[in-house]
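Homework help board

Subject: predicted structure for assignment chain

Our instructor gave us this sequence and asked us to write out the predicted structure in token form, then describe one feature. I got the tokens but I'm not sure how to describe them. Can anyone check?
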Amino acid sequence: MNAGTGYALELKDLRKSFGKTEIIRGINIGIPAGERVGIIGPNGAGKSTLFNLISGRFEPTSGDVLLNGQRLNGKKPFEINRMGLSRSFQITNIFPKLSVFENLRCGVLWSLGYKYTFLKFLADLTDANERANELMQMVKLDKKRDVLAMNLTYAEQRALEIGITIAGGASVILLDEPTAGMSKSETSRFIKLIKDVTVGKTLLTVEHDMGVVFGLADKIAVVVYGELLAYDVPEAVRANQRVQEAYLGSSVADSQAEGST
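My token output:
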């Protein structure tokens, strides 16, 4: 980690324009290792663009993205992943015709040093098989070991994707609307799962469900029209009049009421 800042992830005057339209307008934020940050904002605020800039899918127009003090600008997503940052997507991204176990084993191969070798039988890779089994237990899919991913329920598929996301041992995890499309009971279980599997890791998550954000995050970043309107602990964000006027409105009171029950 960069001894100068102590941040696992840092955005420095980050900007992104498409033609003459500026989407991200000078965001500055520093996230210490192990902190969980929820990113919220209205539709069109720039949340997905921000995630794409951090994970290397977009190149910043100006400014910097630093991972443990190392500049990510210009690096490809797979290079960033190998540096210790992993991301899930809004749309479930798994291998549908592979089993749960096979999906997770694919996720651990590179981090264990196997890379693009075809000289070994996968069944003989004891360390990869053991790690895949550990991940299955972590995401509560050990009873679905040999089930094809396409035959899992939606919530199980999302859990599998979380397992694949953490399989490479990344220290910084980005989750894009992880509970979208889930029922209330599924969402509640999934929040606990996310907390359990990201212990000790730095987490950024984009969510529209305020109950998820306020229940999961140590801090909340509010993005409005490409600018960082607020970045603080959940209680302070709830009480922030500018945030309420710009976005949250009655959702603040609703999430606060849910949190007290």
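Reply (TA_rk): Your tokens look well-formed. For the description, you could write something like this. The longest strand covers residues 7-18. That's the kind of observation they're looking for.
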